[in-house]
Amino acid sequence: MEIEKKYIINDLPLPLESYPCHFIEQAYLCTNPVIRIRRFDEEYTLTYKGEGMMIREESNLPLTKDAYEHLKGKRDGHIITKKRYHIPLPQYENLMIELDIFLSPYPGMILAEVEFQTEDEALAFLPPYWFGEEVTLDPKYHNSNMIYLPFVL
What we know:
The chain has 153 residues and is mainly beta. It contains 3 helices and 9 strands.
């Protein structure tokens, strides 16, 4: 089960160099249900995501690089690439910001996601001052919908 909230980031008040950074490339084989393949640095996964906005089922299976490359040719829409920074939230024990800076096809777009253990924890969350609009319930900000251009912010 995945429980997460998502926010637009307009201005970054902190230097990112001090946080772990990963390269992500992902493509979608199907968007209903969501079936995604992802390269996370040099790890490869196939993910199934159930219906829902803030709360939804999620299952991950490992892929080999060859399987990933084979499936990538069968994708729908565009491939999404982004850099992901992991930023701790000191005011919340065990919470981490996953800050995504998109490279393609939306260069410069920045979204932040925070994953939670429970729905109550998610509902009680107060985002940092530098988070912009919450877009958790806006389906156009699901990566599975962002593969189709044009995407209007």
